[in-house]
Amino acid sequence: MAYDEELSDRLRVELEGIMGISEKRMMGGLCFFLDGNMLAGAHRIKSEEPRFMFRVGKDNEAEALGREGAEIVELGGRRMGGLVFVAAEVCDQAALREWISLSMSFVAGLPAKELKG
């Protein structure tokens, strides 16, 4: 995942003040974690428009994919269940908060773990 500073900054602002949030370069980009579990990230490939990535969980996947600008994450030809890309152009501040809330509803229920490396 290529790093997009503008999108990462937008995520930082919305996640500021939430206990347990950390950042880590991962999948070639920057991901945000809640208590060691991946929550969201920013993605940009040279040939594509910037987009967010959210970990919504498999149970929330159908709801997430029904939202504007959302698509399933495929990396290296492999479908990543429970993860969605969201086009940055359709993700204003209110939508970003809703996506973070959906991701938090899944990730907050996972057991905490320590980030390595």
Describe this structure in words.
The chain is an alpha+beta fold. The protein has one domain: Aspartate Aminotransferase, domain 1. Helices cover 26% and strands 34% of the residues. It has 3 helices and 6 strands, in the order αββββαββα. The chain has a 6-stranded antiparallel β-sheet with strand order 1-2-3-4-6-5. β5 and β6 form a beta hairpin. α1 crosses α3. The two termini are 17 Å apart. The mean pLDDT is 88.
Relevant terms:
TfoX N-terminal domain-containing protein; TfoX_N; 6 strands; six-stranded antiparallel beta sheet; 26% helix; Aspartate Aminotransferase, domain 1; 117 residues; 3 helices; alpha+beta
Structural class designation:
alpha+beta
The CATH architecture comes to Alpha-Beta Complex
Q: What's the helix count?
A: 3
Largest sheet composition: 6 strands, antiparallel
Radius of gyration, CA atoms, in whole angstroms = 13 Å
Number of strands: 6
Strand content: 25-35%
The order of strands across the largest sheet is 1-2-3-4-6-5
Amount of helix: 25-40%
Q: Kindly state the mean pLDDT as a whole number?
A: 88
* CATH class call: Alpha Beta
Say what the CATH topology is. Answer: Aspartate Aminotransferase, domain 1
Low-confidence stretches: none
Instruction: Give helix and strand order, one letter per element, not per position.
Output: HEEEEHEEH
Total number of domains: 1
From the spread of the alpha carbons, the general shape counts as: globular
Q: What is the rounded distance between the termini? A: 17 Å
Protein name: TfoX N-terminal domain-containing protein
Domain TfoX N-terminal: 15-106
InterPro entries: TfoX_N
